[in-house]
Design goal:
The protein is mainly alpha-helical and 147 residues long. It has six helices and two strands; from the N terminus they run H-H-H-H-E-E-H-H.
Amino acid sequence: MNSPDADGLLAEQLLRLTRRLQRSQKQYLEPVGITPAQSRLLRTVAHYDGPPRMADLAERLEVVPRAVTSLVDGLEAAGRVRRVADPTNRRVVRIELTDSGRATLRALRSARRAAAEDILAPLTVDQREVLEGLLSALVDHVPERRC
């Protein structure tokens, strides 16, 4: 069994790796002209079958609706998304990707792959597969809530 110090060291290494990956992604996103938060919003919009409501985006992103409004404002100003009226309820605003937004998503995928490759470069293919399995086990595990 691991000692608490070993678990603490492992947690620290995971945090350092996360920060390194975020810095690398930010560096690759800079030429695309988009922030990490805007990138996440664009990817989230793209996962819906149709244009989502702003409230849906806030819930999916686990942020307050005002944060989504600010992100959409910036993406709309850059021509990457547009607000559209809901056909069944004119008080509801939906967000849809523009052609520029879809092109940005393609550039983002390339930037994220390049950032990941930088981080994973020291690993062999076999090591990457093991890491993927370990990370999946951690990400998919939902711990019990302790009161």
